Amino acid sequence: MSNTLFDKVWDAHVVRKIEDGPDVFFIDRHFIHEVTSPVAFLGLESRGLGVRYPERTFATADHNTPTINQHLPVEDPLSANQLETLERNAKKYGIVHWGLGDQNNGIVHVVGPEHGITLPGFTIVCGDSHTSTHGAFGAIAFGIGTSEVEMVLSTQCIMQPKPKKMRININGTLGLGVGPKDVALFIIAQLTTSGATGYFVEYSGDVFEEMSMEGRMTVCNLSIEMGARGGMIAPDEKTYSYLKGRQYSPKGQAWDNALAYWKTLKTEDGAEFDKEFTFEASQIEPMITFGTNPGMGIGISKDIPLAKDLDGGKTTYDKSLNYMGFNEGDAMKDKRIDYVFLGSCTNGRIEDFRAFASIVKGRKKADHVTAWLVPGSHIVEDQIKKEGILDVLEASGFELRQPGCSACLAMNDDKVPAGKYAVSTSNRNFEGRQGPGSRTLLASPLVAAAAAVTGVVTDPRDLL
Fold it and tell me: Which ranges in 298-372 belong to alpha helices (H)?
């Protein structure tokens, strides 16, 4: 029987099958941060347990970290306590820890791949829903809850039912101004935010084969936003090239052995999926959301849909539009915006800053726009400076902040004020996600850059 990529990786990690129950599932890599780990460590202490394989766990501070003046004490007492607790627990149990000031520090789903901790064929978990990012390397990666964090720390295993399998194919060539974020938002708009619930998704076809590793990470990152347990893309030469020589990547003979295994990680001809979708690249244009979930997205040239043309309930739809201050049939183009956020585990990598700079170069930031440009790690920050991108940004009136999750989730100082509109390259546009009462328009780095220099929602194709 032909196997899928997902089957190959999953089945290789099943320690024990429980009849009519979940699988006992081994975890290769465990990422932790300051928000979801403290209670798990308290659980270990209360039960007198240790960390089973500390060398398989990696800790980084990201959610509560400030993005300016990181050399100063953190002012918020709750954030400061969580950051100190993470450092203390990591030291106690012998876990690698990258806190503020460490050059390896950054957003957990950015630094993992950067350091070669994320590898093909691995199983990866973190107390964070966007762990699906790591699936870009042909890994099975998904978010877990606090009690599961404790379980992995103490046993290196987790109990999980095996998800169903979905494949999403997109063939053809993407048009001008269309990037990985647009592809992901298009898929979510087609499937809805619950369309992949209960499934693990494999992305296949020309579009994903042509994408860079950073683009693949963006797509897999957003898998969770259509309800999927995670998403993955088969490793290929781009994957191997990205990983070779990184700090935790295999070296010497171990690299050769790993490479031989990685080349087997692909779906075989004839393998069956529980559900499959196929789209054409020509269907996709630059995307923007208009509502309060990531599935409420449209091509930037389109108008906000009428409730009667949708399957959902009108009451919920009206509530969402009322929160956003929009109306059915409105055009999204030319709507005034107040904030622009470039960053997060979705779009905080060097490729995203290159894209943003390609639009703003030779132009000026709109006077009324507040822009937060936040690299996903110090490695990204250093590369921005090395490539001259910082010079471009500063000449256009932008400032670069320090690494962290920033305005993605309003758990730090970077909060969008109530009633203000933010074009955001992050992953969620729920009510209050970027600050109480804030209004979020999810978009790509190109769309964000176009809005930043014009002050309104703008089609980036008009500026390229």
Answer: 314-324, 344-347, 350-360
Average pLDDT, the chain: 97
Distance CA 356, CA 455 (A): 15
Closest by CA position to 140, among listed 225, 199, 218, 56: 199
Q: Are 335 and 450 in contact (CB under 8 A)?
A: no
- What does the alpha-carbon distance between residue 128 and residue 117 come to, in Å, rounded to a whole number? 17
Q: What is the CATH number of the domain that holds 188?
A: 3.40.1060.10
How are strands ordered across the β-sheet holding 370-373?
A: 370-373, 339-342, 421-424, 439-442
**Domain membership flag for residue 244:** no
Q: CB neighbours of 245 closer than 8 A, spacing ≥ 6?
A: none
- Measured distance between the N- and C-terminal CA atoms of the chain, rounded to whole angstroms: 49
3-state secondary structure of 464: coil
Please tell me the number of Cα atoms within 13 Å of 246 on its side-chain side.
19
Q: How far apart are CA 464 and CA 358, in angstroms?
A: 8
Q: Tell me if residue 240 falls in helix, strand or coil.
A: helix
CA–chain centroid gap for 390, Å, is: 23
How many CA atoms lie less than 13 Å away from 69 in the CB half-sphere? 6
Within a domain: residue 298? yes
- Nearest C-alpha neighbor of 370 from the set 409, 350, 399, 395: 399
Q: Which two tokens stand for residue 405?
A: 């999750």
With bands split at pLDDT 50, 70 and 90, how would you rate the model's confidence at 74? Answer: very high
Confidence of residue 228 (pLDDT cuts 50, 70, 90): very high
* Same domain, yes or no: 124 and 136: yes
pLDDT digits (tens, 9 = 90+) for 254-310: 999 999 999 999 999 999 999 999 999 999 999 999 999 999 999 999 999 999 988
3 state DSSP class of 252 = coil
- Return d(Cα 57, Cα 361) in angstroms, integer: 41
Please say which residue of 144, 160, 176 terminates a domain: 160
d(CA 397, CA 306): 38
Structural tokens at position 90: 């990591």
Same domain assignment for residues 403 and 435: yes
What is the three-class DSSP state of 193?
A: coil
Number of structural domains in the chain: 3
> Do 340 and 451 contact (CB within 8 A), yes or no?
yes
Per-position DSSP letters for 57-114, written without gaps between them: EEEE--TT--SS-TTSPPSSHHHHHHHHHHHHHHHHHT-EEE-TT-TT-B-HHHHHHH
The domain of 94 spans 5-160
Note whether 154 and 168 are same-domain residues: no
